[in-house]
Amino acid sequence: GAGVSQSPRYKVAKRGQDVALRCDPISGHVSLFWYQQALGQGPEFLTYFQNEAQLDKSGLPSDRFFAERPEGSVSTLKIQRTQQEDSAVYLCASSWDLAAYNEQFFGPGTRLTVL
Amino acid sequence: GQQVMQIPQYQHVQEGEDFTTYCNSSTTLSNIQWYKQRPGGHPVFLIQLVKSGEVKKQKRLTFQFGEAKKNSSLHITATQTTDVGTYFCAGAQVKAAGNKLTFGGGTRVLVKP
């Protein structure tokens, strides 16, 4: 079956531009996670959703970052007024539910480059 | 906050040799997961350990969870070129409002044929 998909795969933005990154989780997965992965680093947690509810956004670096999942399926991560330090791969992952005992399925990521 | 450290950061291995990578958490974990990320790819789930002292094997890979549930290890025997990639451990803590994974920095494995 289809895995987690993300679009666009690559995004180049000029500093100060707003960007929107999309994640399509595996159908039926309740939990959805966003991570930021800098070059040579491990994924860093940004936020997660259970259905449409955003239960933890403690990892969002600043108020320029905003995530939503209005219908409990597709999610969008929006970054306003992008800065060079926002350059990274943004990974989306989904799992069956919120329990800690479920593997997370990752999408291919969106590589964001801010010039 | 919770921190997860992995050593070594890089592992150069001769094909056919064994090696071990280690993962240490600053806090007690409810469970630990291991992921593998191939160059240019995304993390792929390998295994989850839940019980104190648990040991699980997947062919040439052996995973162990420490007695205090604060550390873990991955041992690979008879390394093959297909083992190339970065291995991440990720610790989970169950909180009242939910849970999240904290990833280590990864061990990058290079295999010399």
Walk me through what this model shows:
The complex is a heterodimer of chains A (115) and B (113). By secondary structure, chain A is mainly β. Chain A contains no helices and eleven strands. Chain A has strands at 5-7, 10-13, 19-24, 31-37, 44-50, 53-56, 65-68, 75-79, 88-95, 105-106, 110-114. In chain A, the strands form two sheets. In chain A, strands 2, 4, 5, 6, 9, 10 and 11 form a seven-stranded mixed β-sheet that branches. Chain A starts with a strand and ends with a strand. The model of chain A has no long low-confidence stretch (mean pLDDT 94). With 113 residues, chain B is an all-beta fold. Chain B is 0% helix and 59% strand. In chain B, the strands form two sheets. In chain B, strands 2, 4, 5, 9, 10 and 11 form a six-stranded mixed β-sheet that branches. The radius of gyration of chain B is 14 Å and the shape is globular. The interface between A and B is medium-sized, with 25 and 28 residues.
Tell me the radius of gyration of chain A. 13 Å
Q: Tell me the strand percentage band of chain A.
A: over 45%
Helix content of chain A: under 10%
Give the helix/strand class of chain A: mainly beta
List keywords for this structure.
heterodimer, A: 115 residues, mainly beta, seven-stranded mixed beta sheet, 11 strands, 48% strand, B: 113 residues, six-stranded mixed beta sheet, 0% helix
